Amino acid sequence: MPSKKLNNSESTQGDLANLDVDIDEEHMRLDSYLVKHFSQFSRAKIQRAVAGGRVKIDGIPAKSSTRLKAGQRVEFSPPPKSSDTQIPEEIPLNIILEDDEFVVINKAPGMVVHPSKGHWSGTLTAALSFHFKQLSTIGGATRPGIVHRLDRDTSGAIIIAKTDDAHSKLSQQFEARTVEKEYWAIVSPAPDRDRDMINKPIGAHPYQREKKAIRSAHATSRPAQTTYEVLERFAGFAVIRVTPKTGRTHQIRVHMTHVGCPIFCDRLYSGRARVSLGELSGKAVDNEIPLLERQALHAHKIKFSHPKTGELIECIAELPEDLKRTLERIREFRSLGS
């Protein structure tokens, strides 16, 4: 069978490339060999493809560090190319308020706002591209309409710009810190104080890339201020209202962890990722499913000036079902009076 060597101008999407190793390519590392023939892919992407089992030598899965021999057959299934535009997807949206300039969405928990590594579909932007004919373009092709963001597992109110002018004016409000955001959260344990203001800088975590941490005098550190108020107290829990003054990544999660009261079921910061009815009630429950499988954090309210008229707009996002049922069970089984 003749070897198939694809030049850089040919599409490799969906193809299985079969290449025979030439004599002058003997002793090359496998990843270097593939980069040579498929320079449209980075070495890192090639290595991920190898690790994912997309490359075989003479029919056997290989490693990036494998040294090649002349005459060997290399089978390469190229990784799919990540799109530079957002592909619309018919995903339902909970619209709180909409006009010609913007729309406010009650984002569902578990929904990533825009495409990122490991999350190329099922995003908020995919849903927005399907439901709206016009969205702002300032954020780029993969972030249509996105002015600010919420973490994947944080639900609640998020503003989407329909026009570039609205996007610019809304962004200016966020930069000037005139947008008022109010979050609702369950924390465990309950804070000692009924209310407090946390003023601690946040930066990159020293050894866990996906986390943030309280960091002073570090290159990544930025000022961060968060105010909280206890709304309800329970045995081992509290419902709090949180108003962040700044908008650092993971700010509320990091600050509440810092004072010893992490957001309940926060996988990154609380040490647990889910809770069951049996755990809250202290009773065995047959065939139970988790009550909550994400951090108990919800963007409850957002207040801003209309980008065109200047009118003060206030939007409230209803609590999603997972937080409603969790709170009901906490009230039932963890009441301080029970």
Order of helices and strands: EHHEEEEEHEHEEEEEEHHEEH
Coarse shape = globular
End-to-end Cα distance, whole Å, is 77 Å
Q: In CATH, what is the class of the largest domain?
A: Alpha Beta
Number of DSSP strand runs? 15
Helix content: 10-25%
H/I helix tally? 7
Q: Count structural domains.
A: 3
- Stretches where pLDDT is under 50 for at least 5 consecutive residues are 1-14
CATH superfamily of the largest domain, called what? Pseudouridine synthase
* CATH fold type of the largest domain: Pseudouridine synthase
Rg is: 25 Å
Biggest β-sheet: count, sense, barrel?
9 strands, mixed
β-sheet strand percentage: 15-25%
The pLDDT mean sits at 90
Question: How would you describe what is shown here?
Answer:
- The chain folds into three domains: 17-76, RNA-binding S4 domain (Structural Genomics Hypothetical 15.5 Kd Protein In mrcA-pckA Intergenic Region, Chain A); 82-176, Pseudouridine synthase (2-Layer Sandwich), CATH 3.30.2350; 179-338, Pseudouridine synthase, CATH 3.30.2350.10.
- The chain is built from seven helices and 15 strands.
- The termini are far apart.
- Strand 10 (202-204) and strand 11 (212-214) form a beta hairpin.
- The strands form three sheets. Strands 5, 6, 7, 8, 9, 12, 13, 14 and 15 form a nine-stranded mixed β-sheet that branches. Strands 1-4-2-3 form a four-stranded antiparallel β-sheet. Strands 10-11 form a two-stranded antiparallel sheet.
- With 338 residues, the protein is α+β, with helices and mostly antiparallel strands.
